[in-house]
Design a protein that fits this description.
The protein has 470 residues and is mainly α. The chain is 68% helix and 0% strand. It has helices at residues 28-39, 47-53, 55-83, 90-98, 100-118, 120-129, 139-158, 161-186, 205-215, 232-261, 273-282, 284-318, 336-349, 354-382, 395-415, 419-444, 459-469. The radius of gyration is 22 Å and the shape is globular.
Length: 470
């Protein structure tokens, strides 16, 4: 299967995830669409790449950028997610390589960046509706609507991951279908010469790179749902592969249609411009469908992101990094306290602007990814014999090589951060540095109860068994 062909599958007995006895588990198709919504949700929001750099660089960006960033991140997620098929995800990767202190920092930064990201989606949903309902443009009605929408979508997460997965599939089909129809209708109007327009002297590199980065990251988020997946050691790599194809095609072809079917005016290429193109190509009915699809897509991204954020907190509790009450599940098998905390964070951060949300989220996310790359390489060195049902070929040298391009990109993205975003993000990082010792103090004083699930994977114990059997 494409870039999974060279992978090494280690023959082992299929191990179950830590919680095998609760509710139905997520199968391949819902998992593909959960990843799709974790990463993308469709081409809504990519219009800024054309505004920032013109058609040629926008199209090239969504062809080249995935190989620099998305493919390495997805490959690492496939290896590490099948190595640790549990809900702490990237937290246990870093903890196993660098110790529980840095594992906690990873969990804090990733959870916070996820919650910041999720605060964006109710706002965008209302932005698509305010043209028809002007009262949603601001004031008390907008605030009440934001909170009400957050409560409704949070309830979907409470009802179970299989419900969220089914909703993701339905929303994905509904959101992508209008672009298929728009593509067919636009064929007579396509002019390939429009795709080649560029002006390197007039490129907003900050907007261009941040938009690409924001629309193509978060592949690792699905790792915090690995404990809920049916046969994760085989299902997860397949789902990542299919989702990668879906995400890239879901960006590239709408851009190809939009830039080729209408005369270029870069100033018009802002959020929501695809709906204008839909009206030009197909009429008011197609514009209405696309606007509804954009609104629904934001719902899909919200429920997928909240699932990952809340199950991450549950996974951290199962690893003894958070108080035991974070591991409490509802009768639907969902992380009750994790959902409440994640929803509260979304409401508290909903006052931030779109640009501030994207920039702050990217900054924190970059810090977390650096820890992931370091953990990935160190685990290859420290635990070479650990069970890896899916393994990227190339040994340690290959592990280092695959991390170099995305690390360079991270440095470039961070260099474009404003001073305001940098200060706010560093304060957030500092809070995590202090929070972990405070939690340890509470544990030592026995003011809060912490516990570790006995059936969770222990690499040192596993390798000693491998050595004994060998």
């Amino acid at each position: 299967m494409g870039w999974f062909n060279g992978a090494e599958y280690v023959p082992i007995d299929e191990l179950s995830s830590p919680r095998e006895n609760h509710m139905r588990r997520v199968s391949l198709l819902p998992l593909v669409f959960l990843i799709f919504y974790e990463v993308s949700g469709g081409p809504f929001g990519v219009e800024d790449t054309v505004h920032a750099a013109g058609p040629l660089l926008a199209l090239l960006g969504f062809l080249v950028f995935p190989f620099i960033w998305s493919v390495p991140e997805a490959l690492i997620t496939a290896e590490m997610g099948t190595m640790f098929p549990e809900n702490s995800g990237y937290v246990v990767w870093v903890s196993s390589a660098l110790g529980p202190y840095w594992g906690f920092q990873q969990g804090w930064m990733k959870w916070l960046s996820g919650v910041i990201d999720n605060a964006l989606y109710p706002v965008l949903f209302l932005d698509y509706l305010k043209s028809g309902i002007p009262a949603l443009g601001g004031g008390v009605p907008r605030t009440v609507s934001t909170w009400a929408l957050t409560v409704v979508l949070t309830y979907l997460n409470y009802r179970g991951l299989t419900v969220v997965g089914m909703v993701a599939v339905l929303l994905g089909v509904f959101s992508l279908l209008p672009f298929v129809i728009m593509g067919l209708l636009s064929i007579p109007d396509l002019k390939p010469s429009r795709w080649c327009v560029t002006n390197l002297d007039d490129v907003d590199w900050n907007l261009y790179l941040n938009t690409l980065f924001w629309n193509l990251n978060y592949w690792d988020s699905i790792s915090t749902l690995a404990g809920e997946v049916e046969n994760p050691r085989r299902t997860l790599p397949k789902a990542l592969f299919y989702a990668l194809i879906l995400v890239v095609l879901g960006y590239f072809f709408p851009l190809l249609i939009g830039t080729g079917a209408v005369p270029l005016n870069r100033e018009l290429w802002n959020d929501g411009y695809f709906s204008v193109i839909a009206e030009i190509v197909g009429g008011v009915w197609l514009r209405s469908w696309l606007q509804a699809a954009a609104a629904m897509s934001n719902m899909g991204m919200f429920v997928a992101e909240m699932s990952s954020d809340s199950f991450q907190l549950l996974g951290m509790a199962e690893r003894g990094m958070l108080p035991e009450f974070f591991g409490k599940r509802s009768r639907y098998g969902t992380p009750l306290i994790g959902i409440v905390f994640s929803a509260s964070g979304v409401i508290l951060l909903s006052w931030l602007s779109f640009q501030e949300i994207v920039a702050a989220e990217n900054f924190l996310y970059c810090f977390g990814m650096i820890l992931e790359f370091v953990a990935f390489i160190l685990l290859r060195i420290k635990h070479p014999n650990a069970s890896r049902p899916y393994k990227i070929p190339g040994g340690t040298a290959g592990a280092i090589a695959i991390c170099i391009p995305p690390t360079i990109l991270i440095c470039v993205v961070l260099s474009f951060s404003s001073n305001k975003v940098m200060v706010i993000s560093l304060i957030a990082v500092a809070i995590g540095l202090v929070m972990q010792p405070c939690l340890k103090f509470l544990e030592e004083k026995r003011w809060m109860k912490f516990s570790v699930r006995s059936e969770l994977q222990d690499l040192d114990h596993e390798e000693s068994i491998h050595s004994f059997v060998g």
